[in-house]
Write a structure and sequence with these properties.
- The protein is an alpha+beta fold and 417 residues long.
- The protein folds into three domains: 35-59 and 343-415, conserved putative lor/sdh protein from methanococcus maripaludis s2 fold (Beta Barrel), CATH 2.40.420.20; 62-67 and 261-338, Elongation Factor Tu (Ef-tu), domain 3, CATH 2.40.30; 108-230.
- Helices cover 35% and strands 34% of the residues.
- The strands form four sheets. A six-stranded mixed sheet has the order 1-22-18-17-21-2, with no helix packed on it. Strands 4-11-14-13-12-15 form a six-stranded antiparallel barrel. It has a four-stranded antiparallel sheet with strand order 3-16-20-19, with no helix packed on it.
């Protein structure tokens, strides 16, 4: 007899369908609530540069190049213009003060000198003639006074004789009075002659002084003319080495033209070009360092040139102590211009990441070092080797410091090996 077979509720098909439905619900929940939604970029760790955050000494500085120059340089300019007739030395020669370097020829100057010299000599001769005339006048006055004194002596003898004769009643009153008048007249003449001689003496002394002053001035002008003519010989202004000298015979040198320079052997200085962005932070006395062969040499800024050209301004630097024995004139040295002293700071090495982030964020490795996540940070100062981290990182953490150009704006960097 036939038996009715009951149909099973939990059939394999239904179980599979329920399992798929549960799996879909779980997947949907994971997608909505549990999945890591951050964007990621998968890259080989070998393609990255990873550095550790450390706490160490930090000093803010910038690299600059300094050209070695003589500490003291004296420029040689043509005081008088002319044509180069002779060159006595060559560039690089060691000279003593006053050594001849070259000779110029200036015909117009020489003719002008001869004309002025002639006029000065004529003026000197005229002054000398005036002085001789004053001497002659002095002796003339003296002679006139002597003659008057002689006449007075005769009149005095005659008057005394007339007084005796008058007393004896041998001459008339008229004759005595006449003798008395002649004697008084002669004495007045002598008094006038002495006054004139005194006046001429005072006037002569004054004119003598004027003549001497005028003659001294004439001789000074004559010496100045000779000195000007002597400037056609260009001479070394000090002991030292002649440099930047390239004058040839026959060349024309204009008055004031730069001909060369004397490098005084009293040491060296450095002239450095500094970016104009730092002009407000650079001051005289500021410290600069130079390292060579394991030795550090300290310098300081002696002078700042405020003129800016091609985005750079110049500064002169001097060594605080002995300068390195290996440096030579014209050599370029790499220096560090310091903006601060050494301080303890949290630092990371410089890297290409700064170009993309501006120092505002960085990728920090997870402790497992299998991936790195983006983290906001703040960078304060920097030098050519390190960045100073103000906040956002801790010592011992590792960060990616190579370029982020290929990462886009991903939140996580996953390492595939």
């Amino acid at each position: 007899m036939d038996r009715q077979i009951e149909k099973k509720y939990w059939t394999p098909q239904r179980l599979v369908l329920i399992a798929l439905l549960v799996a879909f619900v779980l997947f949907l929940a994971w997608m909505l609530f549990l999945r890591d939604k951050s964007s990621r970029y998968i890259v080989s760790r070998n393609q990255l540069t990873i550095a550790e955050v450390t706490k160490d000494k930090f000093q803010e500085f910038i690299p600059i190049d300094g050209i070695v120059l003589p500490r003291t340089t004296i420029y040689i300019d043509a005081i008088m213009g002319g044509n180069v007739q002779e060159v006595y030395v060559e560039d690089g020669a060691m000279l003593r003060k006053g050594d001849k370097i070259l000779k110029l020829v200036n015909t117009n100057l020489e003719l002008s000198y001869m004309e002025q010299e002639t006029r000065i000599f004529e003026a000197i001769n005229n002054l000398q003639n005036t002085r001789i005339a004053l001497e002659q006048n002095k002796f003339t006055r003296q002679r006139e006074t002597i003659l008057v004194q002689k006449d007075i002596e005769k009149l005095e003898v005659q008057f005394e004789r007339q007084c005796q004769l008058y007393a004896d009643g041998l001459i008339s009153d008229e004759a005595f009075e006449q003798a008395e008048r002649d004697f008084r007249y002669g004495r007045k003449q002598l008094q006038i002659a002495l006054e004139l001689q005194k006046l001429d003496s005072v006037s002569t002394l004054s004119r003598y002084r004027q003549i001497e002053l005028s003659m001294d001035r004439m001789y000074d002008n004559l010496n100045l003319l000779r000195e000007s003519l002597g400037n056609l010989y260009v001479k070394a202004p000090a002991d030292g080495q002649l440099s930047s000298f390239s004058i040839e015979v026959g060349q024309t040198a204009n008055a004031g033209e730069h001909l060369g320079q004397i490098d005084v052997p009293d040491g060296f200085k450095l002239r450095a070009g500094i970016d104009e962005r730092y002009i407000s932070r650079v001051n005289t006395g500021q410290e600069v360092s130079y390292a060579f062969g394991g030795e550090n040499y300290d310098l300081y800024i002696q002078k700042i040139y405020s003129d800016v050209a091609s985005g750079m301004f110049q500064a002169d630097l001097l060594f605080k102590g002995d300068y390195p024995s290996h440096i030579k004139r014209g050599q370029t040295l790499q220096l560090r211009l310091k903006f601060s002293s050494e301080t303890d700071a949290l630092i990371i090495p410089r890297g290409g990441f700064f170009q993309q982030t501006g120092g505002n964020w960085i990728y920090v490795l997870d402790p497992t070092e299998s991936f790195a996540t983006r983290r906001n940070i703040a960078i304060n100062r920097q030098n050519t080797l390190h960045y100073e981290v103000a906040n956002g990182l801790e010592p011992g953490e590792k960060v990616i410091i190579s370029s982020y150009e290929s990462f886009g704006n991903r939140d996580k960097i996953v390492f595939k090996d």
